[in-house]
Design goal:
- The chain is α+β, with helices and mostly antiparallel strands and about 100 residues long.
- The chain has a domain of about 70 residues: 2-Layer Sandwich (Herpes Virus-1).
- Helix content is about 25%, strand content about 10%.
- The protein is built from 2 helices and 3 strands; from the N terminus they run ββαβα.
- Strands 2-1-3 form a 3-stranded antiparallel sheet.
- The longest helix is centred in the last third of the chain and has 15 residues.
- It is elongated.
- It binds zinc ion (ZN) (2 copies).
């Protein structure tokens, strides 16, 4: 059996961290950026491709001409990084994975 790639970014967020939810993918924001239009968090990469595909229309509030330089890395980044680190520590398997020969 192959383990699914399973990381903190694929989990649903606990209620106390709901504000870290990406408005695009509905998961924990990865490299969060905040828009200057609607002030919401988005994954950096996801937002860049969304803007590229929609011709610079904000996927959150439909503002036109949202520029990549309007996306501000947000300080929530630090908290998300800590959270993800803790999560990784907690999920360490009790026994090492079987060796494949
Ligand atoms: Zn996202
Ligand atoms: Zn917006």
């Amino acid at each position: 059996m192959i383990d699914k790639i399973n990381d903190v970014y694929s989990q649903s967020l606990p209620a106390e961290h709901k504000d870290w939810e990406c408005q695009l993918c509905g998961k924990l924001v990865r490299d969060p950026v905040r828009t200057s239009c609607c002030k919401k968090f988005y994954c950096d990469h996801g937002m860049q491709s969304a803007l590229f595909e929609s011709d610079l229309v904000c996927p959150g509030c439909n503002t036109n001409e949202v520029l990549l330089q309007d996306l501000k890395p947000d300080e929530v980044r630090t908290h998300v990084a800590e959270y993800s680190q803790k999560w990784e520590e907690q999920r360490k398997p009790a026994s090492p994975p079987p060796e494949i020969k």
